[in-house]
Design a protein that fits this description.
1% strand, globular, mainly alpha, two-stranded antiparallel ribbon, 21 helices, 552 residues, 2 domains
Length: 552
């Protein structure tokens, strides 16, 4: 169905949200918080579950990655399914599955069982993520109220990822590793109890569910994310390249299917409108920088500065608190000036933060790292908050689930690309510097380990006597920091390019408060550029900005 058909039919005037809508938002914060926490809560538990379950190296990687793979692969499917069967129904079904899978993960007796449980958690997470943002689109029709609502949603997402490692570390000090999963269960029970307070929304004209399209979206996203992450981790090899090629072919087939199917999963007409397509691109570029650089800062604090994981996670909360206020700043600015310039300003602030970090040294003061990380994260929160709200605002209410899923898919791909490209650049610089630093007297295995990663060099240095170990570790820390400096400079360049693109592609894009065609309400008005959406920029957010967004 053409995009314009949604905007050409009459809508009643859009009422302001009342107490019921704000209570419904409070209910929606539960899945936001838990799904975002589950992204990072497992980090500290890996040594403990490894000791008990004894997974192989491949199994350990799947324990960490399968959640994200399944989540990314099913986002589009679940967003489209929610548009058809009802977003509340899908949300509550996902809550039930997420709670049951959490219990299964907590009491897993083998690595295989834990991998299966993590995969089920990914399925549950894929139902929860697009449903929450889509329901906000339906609950809040007034642009300013929707902006506040999505700002609160954004804060919950950011807080969940930032709190996840801290909560995980605290639980592991007193309980067994499965406790990091059991914390999900009470919240999911509460969501199931409170869920009936949410109104139901679905697209009555959606038609039959496109099962072939769903399979093609899965066959596209899974290989793409897998291939990118594997290249980021182990470099270019045959299997990841084949996976990328297969994913691209499946993606082309998926697009063809959506163009020709009688009842497609996605309305590709969304991408004809700047407000949506450019927002997806902006989110992708922002997450490219966020996730790509976060990989370095985690190692910097723990291996270069010698912090424990819990200590690093606690310091991570400080920039997160600083970032939270930028959503309100972005909203205020966008109500007074062209949002293209506000988004460009966000990218420029991020670029400045990355340039600042390019002077980071192994012995730099901790405040230097924290403040610089807060600067670039603040800029990217501005970008993603305005971009998300704009994209959801221009999407027809009937298609809000699909639009939310596409936004989330863009952030997943952006993060994976950031890990692959920026990670590869930093690793190449590290290896180049370590070629000269590694002593010729080291055994070949130890020399290779020291050249490959900072963690490997630290392990080798611990086995060397006295000054030899200290010299190797100092050289490795310097080489790693040099790689970090190069990666953040590349990120700064991408941010500068993104700022220019934001001005070029979004300048002059406005929505109108007032009457649209045939009595359309303010929330669905049509501007001269053919874009529908709220009259004022609101605040959104992204699930991944928080933990990775602070860059630590």
């Amino acid at each position: 169905m053409p995009f314009t058909s949604y905007t050409s039919r009459p809508y009643a005037s859009q009422p302001s949200a009342g107490r019921r809508e704000w209570i419904a938002l409070a209910v929606l914060l539960l899945p936001c918080l838990l799904v975002s926490m589950d992204v990072s809560v497992l980090y500290f538990a890996v040594p403990f579950l490894t000791a008990q379950l004894e997974p192989s190296s491949v199994q350990q990687l799947w324990i960490l990655d399968v959640y994200g793979f399944v989540l990314a692969g099913l986002l589009i499917t679940m967003g489209a399914l929610g548009d058809r069967v009802g977003r509340r129904k899908l949300l509550l079904s996902g809550a039930l599955l997420f709670g049951l899978a959490s219990g299964l993960a907590a009491y897993s007796g083998s690595a295989e069982m834990l991998i299966a449980a993590r995969a089920l958690l990914g399925v549950g997470g894929a139902t929860l993520m697009p449903s929450t943002l889509a329901l906000i689109r339906n609950l809040f029709h007034d642009a300013k109220q929707r902006g506040k609502a999505v700002a609160i949603w954004s804060a919950a997402m950011m807080g969940g990822i930032a709190i996840g490692p801290v909560l995980s570390g605290a639980l592991l000090e007193h309980f067994w590793w499965g406790s990091v999963f059991l914390i999900n269960a009470p919240a999911m029970v509460l969501l199931l109890v409170c869920g009936p307070l949410l109104p139901e929304f679905k697209n009555p004209a959606a038609g039959r569910f496109d099962l072939p399209g769903s399979l093609l979206s899965l066959l596209a996203m899974l290989p793409l994310v897998y291939g990118i992450k594997e290249i980021a981790r182990d470099g270019v090899s045959a299997l990841p390249v084949v996976a990328l090629a297969a994913g691209l072919l499946a993606a082309a087939a998926f697009v063809h299917r959506q163009r020709t199917a009688r009842h497609p999963m996605l309305d590709l007409e969304l991408f004809r409108h700047r407000g949506f397509s450019v927002s997806v691109l902006m989110n992708l570029l922002a997450m490219f920088a966020v996730v790509g650089c976060a990989v370095f800062f985690t190692q910097y604090l723990q291996t270069v500065r010698g912090m424990s994981p819990l200590e690093a996670a606690l310091w991570n909360l400080l920039p997160t608190l600083a970032v939270g206020g930028m959503t309100a700043v972005a909203t205020s600015l966008a109500q007074r000036m062209d949002r293209a310039y506000v988004i460009a300003l966000g990218f420029a602030i991020a670029a400045a933060g990355f340039v600042w970090l390019s002077w980071l040294e192994p012995g730099s003061a901790l405040w230097y790292v924290l403040v610089a990380s807060s600067v670039y994260a603040s800029g990217l929160v501005m970008v993603m908050s305005l971009g998300n709200e704009l994209a959801i605002g221009v999407a027809p209410p009937e298609r809000a689930g699909s639009a939310s899923a596409l936004l989330e898919s863009g952030t997943e791909l952006g993060g994976a690309l950031g890990m692959a490209i920026l990670g590869s650049i930093g690793s190449a610089v590290y290896r180049g510097h370590m070629d000269d630093a590694v002593s010729a007297g080291l055994p070949s295995g130890a020399a290779d380990a020291a050249r490959e990663t900072l963690a490997g060099a630290a392990a080798v240095a611990g086995e060397l006597p006295g000054r030899a170990g200290e010299a190797l570790l100092a050289a490795a820390r310097t080489a790693f920091t040099d790689g970090l400096q190069t990666a953040v400079l590349v990120a700064a360049g991408v941010m500068a390019l993104a700022a220019a693109l934001a001005i070029a592609l979004l300048r002059g894009l406005r929505t109108t408060e007032g009457e649209g065609p045939k009595g359309a309400g303010a929330g669905d008005a049509v501007d001269a550029a053919g874009v529908t959406g709220p009259g004022a920029a609101g605040v959104g957010g992204a699930a991944d900005v928080a933990g990775a967004g602070t860059g630590i």
